[in-house]
Design goal:
Layout (H helix, E strand, L loop, with lengths): L7 H14 L10 H5 L4 E6 L5 H9 L3 E7 L2 H13 L5 E5 L2 H4 L8 E7 L17 H10 E11 L2 H13 L3 E6 L9 H8 L5 E7 L2
Parallel strand pairs: 1-2, 1-4, 2-3, 4-5
Antiparallel strand pairs: 5-7, 6-7
Helix pairs in contact: 1-4
Length: 209
């Protein structure tokens, strides 16, 4: 985890909020009705960065329960702050790596998986560290219900090709490249990419069986 130092006040808030709204990376399989106190559709939001899109979408989609996963401490604190002060009580946060956390998610229990602008690891010697690969897509598909969606976005062109190839190779998924959804928030990260001349690619896949 990328633990930047926080001010004493922020550190105290973080510790209090993560106790209230956090989910541990390791532990038994989770029951979403027990976690959220209701039977609703659950979104797994992987690598939410600064938390802008997570917060905005949670505010506009109150009927969707959200589990956000991020290693970056300041982004985690930002989302926890929003849960507290914007009354986003249908959001929970995992401060850590999504891969071991998948062991806590039951098969066919998710309605949506979002991976927006994951770390591109652009150098050839680090490409293997990219999150979206065949094994991960298969594991995420296991956890999607039939009819559930895998929503992806990146502004790295060769990564977009990899995403499409590995998702196309998963025979339980159907979909591909789509126009940029109007509902997906424009974050500062995406804006920097646009300013640098990079165009985002959005992909949408649905689990068919």
């Amino acid at each position: 985890m990328r633990r930047r130092s926080l001010s004493p006040k922020r550190q105290a808030e973080f510790e209090s909020w993560i106790e209230r709204w956090g989910l541990d990376v390791h532990g038994p399989v989770l029951s979403w009705p027990e976690v959220f106190g209701r039977n609703g559709d659950v979104v797994l939001d992987i690598g939410f960065g600064h938390g802008e899109s997570t917060i905005e979408l949670a505010g506009s989609q109150p009927d969707l329960d959200v589990v956000g996963v991020e290693v970056h401490t300041p982004g985690v604190v930002t989302v926890l702050d929003a849960i507290e002060h914007q009354h986003l009580r249908h959001v929970r946060v995992v401060h850590g790596d999504v891969l071991p956390f998948l062991d806590r998610i039951d098969d066919t229990s998710l309605a949506i998986v979002r991976i927006f602008f994951p770390d591109p690891w652009p150098k050839s010697r680090t490409n293997h560290r990219r999150l979206v690969g065949g094994d991960v897509v298969a594991a995420l598909t296991d956890r999607l219900r039939v009819g559930g969606q895998l929503q992806l976005a990146t502004d790295i062109s060769d990564y977009a090709e990899v995403m499409r190839d590995v998702c196309d190779a998963e025979n339980r998924l159907d979909g591909g490249v789509v126009a940029r959804p109007s509902w997906r928030p424009l974050t500062r990260f995406e804006r920097r990419g646009l300013d640098a001349g990079r165009s985002p690619t959005d992909l949408l896949y649905v689990r068919t069986h």
